[in-house]
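re: ur msg from earlier - yeah i can do the magnesium ion complex, just paste it... oh wait u already did. ok heres what im feeding in:
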Amino acid sequence: MERPAEPDMPREAPALGPPLISARELSKVYRVGEQDLVALDRITLEIAAGDFVAIMGPSGSGKSTVMNLIGALDVPTSGQLLFDGRDIGALSVDELAELRNRSIGFVFQQFNLLARTSALEQVMLPLLYAHPRPADSEAMARRRLEQVGLGNRMDHTPRQLSGGQQQRVAIARALVNNPKLILADEPTGALDTRTSEEIMQVFRDLNREGITIVVVTHEPEIALWAGRRVTFRDGHIVDDIRQTPYTGAAPLEGGVPPPVTP
Ligand SMILES: Nc1ncnc2c1ncn2[C@@H]1O[C@H](COP(=O)(O)OP(=O)(O)OP(=O)(O)O)[C@@H](O)[C@H]1O
Ligand SMILES: [Mg+2]
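and the outut:
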């Protein structure tokens, strides 16, 4: 695997800080024809700075809905949502866009890369919208690509990259604005088991640097990497547990393959 050794990388998850996300009685109701569809039903959820959270639950249980609200991609029907102490409901459209651009990185199942654009340009793209635009955009993008192990793939377009490498480009793109929070909705859903493990190692390392990570997944093996597992059902939180995260340090019994890097 191409990821460079990082001797200074912290070996432990960070201590938890004050709440980064604080949702109170948060609801999302979609109007479909004559019907109201309650996608999220008065959930209350706090996520501390530095946490690594896996969100689980059956299809249609509200996982993507809650991610879209936390990421300020959508607005709640009712309830309160604080991001880093700021009431998202009180922000203007411009302030919401700035919050998204500056503080939150998004990663999706289907990578969402531009077909004919090099890895380096993809990662530089979010900086085009930054105000003020950093003078060293290219160096910032290079550093993030190196961080995810793609220092030798900067000029490759998506079809010249494997699925796991494409997802790492997407992660580098999510990182380039130095976000506090990464929201990843089924980031390994399109990847095989071994590649999924590599992607989770990247998230683990980012979390150790202090970035808060929220990952939606259907796969129990993926949820094991998190320090907390929150389960949704029918728009409610039905379970919320802390766990000792799997760190990739040793093979797990029951089928998770050994780590690719020590
Ligand atoms: N834009 C929309 N308009 C109407 N209903 C919606 C909309 N988006 C989601 N829903 C409904 O809200 C509910 C929750 O959807 P959501 O996408 O959050 O589920 P999910 O847990 O992410 O499921 P999956 O695991 O399949 O991705 C579902 O019943 C869905 O049909
Ligand atoms: Mg979903």
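cool cool. The pocket of magnesium ion (ligand 2) is lined by residues 63-64, 185 (CB under 6 Å). ping me if u need the other ligands too
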